[in-house]
């Protein structure tokens, strides 16, 4: 096996020694479920999310002074809660901030920052300082993520934030909210770069024509049509399509992937509008929405051309659009969006779902201790029992996949052997993140073991 160095945040000793079965029991206890079976109650309800969004909007409201919000834990008991306070402060720029800020601020110039102070009943604290254009966002966790939070730090890897906030504070913020299904996070916009770095609609014109032609002639589109057309009348009526995390629409390493996934959402709408129209005098209409924090202004304009309306990602607006008449398109997010979607549309679940292929029911294997460290396997997408049952209630079409456009090219399976913290490691700054030794799985011939990230189409059967 080959060792490859990388960087990841450390998991706490207590969490590394934890087992998934005990954490699942903690969730059941918090939900007042007394049996030994899987978690049956929805963690995400419309009422809870609406209440959380209302508190979130009050927190980020720029009018008034200091604001405080309570972030409930699973049990909604005071001892499980985290409080966050937001205040504003004026600072002076002295060249220590990131390069993007240097383009906008002059030496000695005053600028406004927002400061988030997190605190829990155990006395733990975290302080996050944000530029004015940075965003505060709602974060939602699945049952599987609540169980395995620090046991798989790869899953929570974040690029280093701007110099205003130390990386260790970001991890403290995450740790304090580890067992909060709905929590507060931040989006550092300096990591995306200024708007001027992105191409215009005119500069993208040729790429768009090429991507559209590629999609219309692809076997993937053919497989999608063949799955939807004969089944449109056998599934619940679809009134809207909601897309999550399909990506910004620019040429990059993913080439045409993001734009083609949005084209797929548009075509799903067209196929279902035609297939579910009962009276030609009153054609069936389906509205399409898309949520992604990476959308830029040019993306929003391009999506409008496709008949897709963008919604606010930071306040989780798209989640509240979901009901049993919703078709969801999210290719890579997995349980992070699938479980809230199934819970919000409880008890039947969404009408249809195009997503990363589900690989197993995590709660059926919850007696296995998670002690070996994180594993990156592109094919691994284990879900809660509630999501698994939703999948089983659907007609499944695994042929609707394509590594270039929908899934992900084959990638190496990696495992973490150990966390290496140098004795002289600083307590803050970039180097405070300890080194990790990666181990790449190899076969008997010494070749890297590869896994493939596939997608599948799910169509809920009419009751």
TrEMBL record:
Bias kind Basic and acidic residues: ranges: 1-18
Domain of life: Eukaryota
Annotated spans, Disordered: 1-20
InterPro entries assigned: SRR1-like
Residues annotated as domain SRR1-like: 225-327
Region forming the signal peptide: none
Protein name in the entry: SRR1-like domain-containing protein
Taxonomy of the source species: Eukaryota, Fungi, Dikarya, Ascomycota, Pezizomycotina
């Amino acid at each position: 096996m080959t060792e490859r160095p990388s960087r990841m945040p450390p998991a706490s000793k207590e969490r590394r020694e934890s087992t998934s079965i005990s954490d699942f029991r903690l969730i059941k206890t918090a939900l007042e479920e007394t049996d030994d079976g899987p978690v049956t109650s929805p963690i995400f309800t419309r009422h809870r999310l609406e209440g959380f969004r209302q508190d979130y909007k009050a927190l980020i409201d720029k009018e008034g002074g200091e604001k405080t919000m309570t972030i409930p834990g699973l049990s909604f008991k005071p001892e499980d809660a985290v409080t966050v306070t937001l205040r504003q402060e004026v600072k002076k720029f002295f060249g220590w901030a990131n390069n993007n800020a240097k383009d906008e601020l002059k030496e000695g110039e005053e600028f406004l920052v927002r400061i988030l102070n997190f605190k829990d009943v155990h006395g733990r604290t975290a302080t996050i300082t944000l530029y004015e254009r940075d965003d505060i966002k709602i974060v939602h966790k699945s049952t599987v993520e609540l169980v395995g939070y620090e046991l798989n730090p790869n899953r929570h890897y974040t690029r280093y934030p701007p110099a205003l906030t130390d990386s260790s504070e970001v991890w403290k913020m995450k740790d304090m909210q580890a067992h909060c299904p709905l929590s507060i996070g931040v989006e550092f916009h300096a990591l995306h770069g200024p708007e001027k770095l992105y191409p215009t609609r005119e500069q993208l014109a040729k790429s768009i024509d090429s991507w559209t032609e590629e999609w219309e002639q692809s076997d993937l589109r053919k497989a999608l049509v063949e799955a939807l057309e004969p089944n449109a009348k056998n599934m619940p009526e679809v009134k809207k399509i909601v897309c999550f995390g399909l990506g910004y629409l620019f040429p990059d390493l993913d080439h045409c992937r993001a734009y083609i996934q949005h084209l797929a959402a548009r075509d799903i709408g067209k196929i279902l509008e035609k297939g579910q129209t009962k009276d030609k005098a009153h054609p069936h209409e389906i509205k399409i929405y898309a949520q992604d924090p990476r959308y830029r202004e040019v993306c929003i304009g391009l999506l409008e051309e496709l008949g897709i309306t963008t919604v606010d990602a930071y306040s989780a607006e798209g989640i509240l659009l979901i009901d049993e008449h919703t078709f969801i398109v999210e290719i890579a997010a997995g349980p992070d969006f699938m479980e809230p979607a199934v819970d919000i549309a409880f008890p039947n679940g969404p009408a249809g779902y195009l997503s990363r292929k589900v690989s197993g029911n995590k709660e059926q294997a919850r007696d296995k201790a998670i002690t070996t460290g994180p594993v990156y396997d592109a094919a691994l997408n284990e879900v809660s029992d509630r999501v698994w049952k939703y999948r089983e209630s659907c007609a499944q079409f695994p042929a609707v996949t394509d590594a270039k456009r929908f899934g992900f090219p084959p990638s190496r399976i990696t495992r973490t052997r150990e966390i290496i913290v140098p004795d002289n490691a600083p307590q803050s700054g970039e180097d405070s993140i300890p080194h990790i030794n990666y181990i790449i799985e190899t076969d008997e011939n010494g070749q890297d073991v590869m896994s493939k990230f596939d997608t599948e189409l799910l169509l809920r059967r009419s009751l």
